[in-house]
Structure prediction request, 265 residues.
Amino acid sequence: YEYRLFQLLPALRAVDPDEAERLLKANREVAGMLEKYPQGAEQLNSPRGGRPGGGTMMVGSGPGPRGDGGPGMDRAGMERLQKIMADAEAHPQDALANVATLSSAESKVQALQGIARVTWKKNPSVAKSALKQMLEILPRLEPQEQVLPVRVAAQTYLEMGEAAEARKAIEKGLESAAKLYKQDTDADDPNKALKAYWPSAGAYVGLLRAAAEMSPDWALEQLKEVPDDDLRALAQIGMASALLGQPAGPVTMVSQKKDGVNMIQ
Prediction:
C-alpha cells in the first residue's frame, strides 16, 4: 500500500490536493520519502539513479558499499582486471591463476564471475573452479554486494546442469538477504525508506524469483524463511511474475538512515 501510495501521490496532489494532504498526514513514512523524492517513483527511476544497460549506481549522501574494488581501484589494478577478463576465453587457466594478483575482494569477485560466464560452455571445469572461488570470497564483501554475484553463480550452475550447486548458491544469497534485513530493521538506526525499496526486499525478491525459475516447490520452501510478511508478499509477486514469464524489470533499492540516503539501481 505504501509503495503504491508513493507512486500515485504526486499525481493525486495535482487533482485533489486536500485528499493528498490527508493521506500524507496518515502515512508519515510515505511523506518522508516524498520530501526527498517529490516526484515519487518516477524520480527514483530517473537516469540520475541509474545508467542505461543496467548495472549499479549509487546516489545519495551516505556511504555506499566499499569502493576499493570499483571506483577506488588504482590504474594498475584496473589494467590487471581488464587483462584477466581479456584472457579468459583464450587462456582460461592463466586467467584463473592471475586472479590472485588482484588486491581487492571486489575485483576478484568481478574477475571470477567474468571467467565463469565466458568458460562455462567450452571449459566447464574452469567455470566451476571460478564459481567455487567466487563464493568463498563473497563473505568478505558487504551483504548487498553479495546478492548479484550469487544470482550469476546460480544461473551459471544451472546452465551447466548443476542444479544442486545452483540451489546452494541461492541459499548462500538468502543468508546475505537475512543480514540485509537485520540492517534494515536495526533498532538504533532503522531504514526509513519504504519497505518495498529496502535492500533486503530487493535481495529476497531477486533470489526467490531465480529460485522459482529453478524449482517452484523448492522456492516456496525457501519463501517460508523470509522473516517479514510484507517482504514475503513482495517475493511471492516476483516468483509469480517469473513463472508467468514476465521480465524482472529494473530494481531500485533505497537506504534512508542517520548518515543520509543511498540509492542503488
Remarks:
- Residues 7 and 40 are 5 Å apart (CA to CA).
- The two ends are 22 Å apart (CA to CA).
